[in-house]
Amino acid sequence: MVGKYRRVWRSYGKRPGVAALGFSAAVASALVSMIAPSLVRRAVDVLAAGGDPRRALPFALGIVGVAAVSGFLLFAQRMLLVGISRHLEHELRTEAFAHLLRLPASFFSSQRVGDLLTRLSSDVQAVRMAMGPALMYVASTTTILVSAVVLMLRIDVTLTLASLSMAPAVALTAKFFGSRIYRRWNVAQEELSRFTARLQEHLVGLRVLRAFACEEQEKKTLGELNLAYFRASLRLVNVQALFFPLLQFLIGVGFVVVLGYGGYKVVARSLSLGQFVEFNLYLARLIWPMIAVGWVANLWQRGAASMARIEELFSQTPELPALPGPRPAKPAPSKALSVAFTGVRFSYPGAPGPALRGVTLTVPAGRRVAILGEVGSGKSTLLSLVPRLLTPPPGTVFVDGRDVLQWDLEELRGTVVMVPQTAFLFSATLRENICMGKPEASDQEVWEVVARAGLEPDVANLPQGLQTVVGERGVTLSGGQRQRVALARALLLQPAVLLLDDCLSAVDRSTEAKILGELPRTTLLFATHRVSVAKTADWVVILERGEVAEEGTPSQLAAAGGRWAQLLALEELEEETMEARG
């Protein structure tokens, strides 16, 4: 069990002095509290002997003093040990999130967002409870348990053995229920992950649900997931509800034994009334440790289950910053770098066939290349390999003559920037979204990229201009506006290689052509479905089923009479038809 928490023990190792003080305070608080029963015994014996009640006053004051010191030590142990657990929670969540950022895109394509949220929230909290309050009470209750038993043995050995007759039953009960709590907590967390994932999808896609009148259907789906989580939680609660009352029953049986046997000893005068009261106070001190056995076991089982779920994240292999081996010399700064694909083959896990089938393409520095193809032809896959959003086979994709796998990942993604078709914006101001990769950008730099992305008229119409909050995922902007914000974000980084994955599909043809024409003269690869826009490129590549079907300049391909010529004719026919209707 302890081994499952190996990763988080480091938080205690970083703060040995604080941990030592915290555990010392826990032990000292428990030991100080054990003084009070002895003072009570003396006061009772004084009063039972018919002496002056004032003689019991020092003992009463002593009890008050013990309570004050014990209370201060309780405060200290909580501040120190629970404080460490809060540091642990922060560090574990930060470490887990940092690890997530290093994982490849393929990992996220197979994961539910809600599951990841649950692991970084409630699972981390469960680990904190196990490594904070639970450990604190292990220290204090163990001290109470040992010292109380020793002091009880000092009063009467046989009465002590009788009072502890139920201890084996308590231990077996804790072991029996502990494993069941572990399993049921795990199931409940999985159900919570499924519910959270679906809820997140519903909230994000609420407009789509309303547009297709799917509210009732999705309400039913979410209700079923909520019910599954409720039932899993109820099964966990049922175990816990039986666990603690059973512990209290066993402890109560022990008390009955003590009252009967101890009362007999008092009547037989083998035990004074004061000693009997003192013994019962020690026994009362044992109630919390015996209940805490179950509570701590519950926390540790839940924490262990959650830690196992978190460790599943850490077991995922992150992207390598670069392959082992000597690093080529860093290229001199330039405005554009070359890109080359050499026999690139790529398959998605579980896909029936390869997405790319031996693609070979050379893009000289500063060249503008348009990539056309039907849905599923491999355009997005090809572009995603350059910045290693997908990992290519070794020796197949090169930037500036260097295998992208030999580039430092941070350096590569600062050199090659890709703008996806689906633009993601954060719930922040428009300026903050544009400056995400370069927060220190000046106003002049921001306005330059706003102009190049064709956003100036849109910004002028916003209530607060660049300081307008765009809402979650940019909900207050249109699809075309979101795409142009994403383009402006990329342009601000002044990349040596710019990749556009049909990222202007939501704007009209003339606007797209104008924006592309005003882009800086860098190496540009852009996927598009518009032939009229592709005509502005220096070189055109047509992909079909993951292979290069045609490539050349627009004029060369038009003269060849192949697929490009067919697409040109089809687009011209569409334009003539629209003009005739209009």
Description:
The chain has helices spanning 10-13, 16-33, 35-48, 57-102, 105-109, 113-131, 133-155, 157-163, 167-204, 206-211, 215-267, 273-314, 379-385, 409-415, 430-434, 443-452, 456-461, 479-491, 509-517, 531-534, 554-560, 563-581, and strands at 339-346, 356-363, 368-373, 397-399, 402-403, 416-419, 497-501, 523-527, 539-544, 547-552. The protein folds into two domains: 2-314, ABC transporter type 1, transmembrane domain (ABC transporter transmembrane region fold); 339-424 and 489-581, 3-Layer(aba) Sandwich (Rossmann fold), CATH 3.40.50. Strand 7, helix 19 (509-517) and strand 8 form a beta-alpha-beta unit. The strands form two sheets. Strands 6-7-8-3-9-10 form a six-stranded mixed beta sheet, with helices on both faces. The longest helix has 53 residues, at 215-267. Helix content is 62%, strand content 9%. With 582 residues, the protein is an alpha/beta fold. It is elongated. The chain has 22 helices and ten strands. Helix 6 runs parallel beside helix 7, helix 6 runs antiparallel to helix 9 (167-204) and helix 9 (167-204) packs parallel to helix 12 (273-314). One of its GO terms (cellular component) is plasma membrane. Residues 339-570 form the ABC transporter domain.
CATH superfamily of the largest domain: ABC transporter type 1, transmembrane domain
Overall CATH architecture of the largest domain: Up-down Bundle
CATH topology tier name of the largest domain: ABC transporter transmembrane region fold
**How many β-strand stretches?**
10
Main sheet characteristics: 6 strands, mixed
The Cα radius of gyration reads 35 Å
Q: What is the count of structural domains? A: 2
User: Strand arrangement, largest sheet?
Assistant: 6-7-8-3-9-10
Roughly how much helix do the residues carry, as a percent range? 55-70%
InterPro entries: AAA+_ATPase (IPR003593), ABC1_TM_dom (IPR011527), ABC1_TM_sf (IPR036640), ABC_transporter-like_ATP-bd (IPR003439), ABC_transporter-like_CS (IPR017871), P-loop_NTPase (IPR027417), Type_1_exporter (IPR039421)
Protein name: ABC transporter ATP-binding protein
Domain ABC transmembrane type-1: 20-302
Pfam families: ABC_membrane, ABC_tran
